[in-house]
Amino acid sequence: MRILLVYPIFPKTFWSYEKILELVDRKVLLPPLGLVTVAAILPQEWEFKLVDRNIRSATEEEWAWADVVILSAMIVQKEDLLGQIQEAKRRGKLVAVGGPYPTSVPHEVENVGADFLILDEGEITLPMFIEALQRGETSGVFRATEKPDVTSTPIPRFDLLELNAYDMMSVQFSRGCPFQCEFCDIIVLYGRKPRTKTPAQLLAELDCLYELGWRRGVFMVDDNFIGNKRNVKLLLKELKVWMEEHQYPFRFDTEASVDLAQDAEMLELMVESGFSAVFLGIETPDEDSLQLTKKFQNTRSSLADAVQTIIKAGLRPMAGFIIGFDGEKAGAGDRIVKFAEQAAIPSTTFAMLQALPNTALSHRLKREGRLRENQDGNINQTTLMNFLPTRPLEDIGREYIEAFCTLYDPVNYLDRTYRCFLMMGLPKWKAPAKKPEWIVVKALLIVIWRQGIVRETRWKFWHHLFSILKRNPGVLEHYISVCAHNEHFLEYRQIVREQIESQVAAYLAQGKEEPYVPVPAKKAEEKTEAIAS
Questions:
Q1: CA–CA dist 223, 132 (Å, integer)
Q2: 188-197, 271-280, 311-320, 504-513: lowest mean pLDDT where?
Q3: Which of 107, 162, 285, 330 is most buried by its number of CB atoms within 10 A?
Q4: Using CA of residue 82, residue 357, residue 278, residue 463, what is the dihedral sign?
């Protein structure tokens, strides 16, 4: 069996980083970990080719070669996924699809001709698909009623990737998250009981990457790396030894809940094991909104103090923020900007709240009749809300634009980055010195030219650079790389402004809706009784 694995295009997003990747001659930030894991689970006597459309398109020879085309996608990749299913069917191919987006809304991929739907988690549903192919079947829907034991997951087929095109590699230690945030689809897709691989499994994946010659960053893509704290600490203790034995070939980034700040042992182990950055889901500094959306873990202590604890331990924070929660008061955008400045968080993903399919939020809004028609809740930063909020949608849109553009004003960004790295704890390890690559030196010179000479940032750039060199020189290399991110945000903030302004104008032209007014609890009960009677 010849299998063509196709990964759809990501539109420009916060994470696409095109301008930064161009500087170092790379195409994409991260590889399609799901598809190379699929390739590892399928029979190894089959033949595989992988096409990441963020790097290149499939050739006609590759289309002709394939017996089956397998695609996987997240909701942000929806448009290209549906287009590629149609391309494959136009060529008469059997098409199988899976991943978070098809699992959430399977009818949308069925409607454009997908033959096999391999939904939920592949450790359970891929064997069903294999058996169906071996029986000669040409269609089927495969679902799981339970969550798999990921200790059986094989090492992903990293060898199928065009390694030089990626800035970082991806590995996964756990699936699931113990919390209950109303808007989150992770707990719907993967459950609230975090399941982990064994330390030996994860180290075997790192061995594989090492043998393939990989020597750059590795993103631990767990949606909450510290969800199972006991097992993560067991991993980190072994990872620390592995990294020392291999002379620190990688640096790690990951995602974690903000209660990481309350676990000093975890922080120390992460830094000693080579972690350098962590993405935190902060969402909003408004405690009422956090309570309403059931993100209780963010209300137990000062969020600003938690972020600074993480910085001082030696981890650079990235943070997710959301605007548009029910009951939110005007000025939410400004409050988010002030919080990011106060906490000294350089990079913040910032988006309007979306009701993702099958989440507790989407179910509640559907009951209340608030979902907007033909809006799928795409989680890109250039997407207007897909439901009717409790304050005017156009006001939220305008607040969002101004806050996003303020956050990524080039001078503001450099100032926050500087304050972050002034207080950042030093790495607990040191890789052997090596001759810098010319492409990296060239990128550095371009950043210095643009930010230190050409633009209005020039005075800040040189002041901050020399101050870091004098006051915290151990973080200099990391600091400069984060300054370079300004190249992406300078362009992306304008994309956000143009696209959101366009959507707000279209919304107003259609005749805006009045904000949703929640029904008081007593009146809601009376209304329910009246309907029942």
A1: 32
A2: 504-513
A3: 285
A4: positive
Give CA–CA dist 408/190, Å, rounded.
Answer: 33
The pLDDT value recorded for residue 533 is: 47
| Residue 15 confidence (pLDDT) | 78
Q: Is 333 left (phi over 0), alpha (psi -120 to 50) or beta?
A: alpha
Whether 417 has a pLDDT exceeding 60, the answer reads: yes
Report the SS3 class of residue 79: helix
Of 259, 262, 266, nearest in space to 281 by CA: 259
Residues 6+ apart with CB under 8 A from 512: 392, 393, 394
Distance set, CA 212 to CA 206, 207, 238 (Å): 10, 9, 21
For residue 347, what are the β-bridge partners?
Answer: 318
Q: Please check whether residue 44 is in contact with residue 73, taking contact to mean a CB–CB distance below 8 angstroms.
A: no
CB 220 within 8 A of CB 252: yes
DSSP string, 447-501: HHHIIIIISTTHHHHHHHHHHHHHH-GGGHHHHHHHHHTHHHHHHHHHHHHHHHH
Tell me how far CA of residue 431 lies from CA of 236, 267, 281, 436, in angstroms: 18, 20, 30, 13
Contacts of 405 (CB under 8 A, 6+ apart): 493, 496, 497
| Separation between Cα atoms, residue 502 and residue 242, nearest integer Å | 51
- Count Cα atoms within 13 angstroms, Cβ side, for 98: 29
Q: Phi/psi class of residue 377: alpha, beta or left (left: φ > 0; alpha: ψ in -120 to 50)?
A: left
Task: Say how far apart CA 380 and CA 11 lie, in whole Å.
Answer: 8
- Which tops the pLDDT comparison, 319 or 529? 319
- The answer on pLDDT for 70 being more than 90 is yes
User: Cβ neighbours of residue 85 under 8 Å, at least 6 residues apart?
Assistant: 71, 95, 97, 109, 112, 113, 114
Which tokens is 354 given?
A: 């979306």
Pairing type for strands 174-175 and 195-196 reads antiparallel
Other beta carbons within 10 angstroms of residue 229's beta carbon come to 16
Residues in the chain: 533
Predicted pLDDT at 473: 96
Cα(24)–Cα(439) distance, rounded to whole angstroms? 6
202-239 pLDDT, tens digit per residue, is 999 999 999 999 999 999 999 999 999 999 999 999 99
Q: Which among 298, 310, 300 is positioned nearest to 346, based on CA atoms?
A: 310
Q: Give pLDDT, residue 449.
A: 97
Helix (H, G, I), strand (E, B) or coil at 69: strand
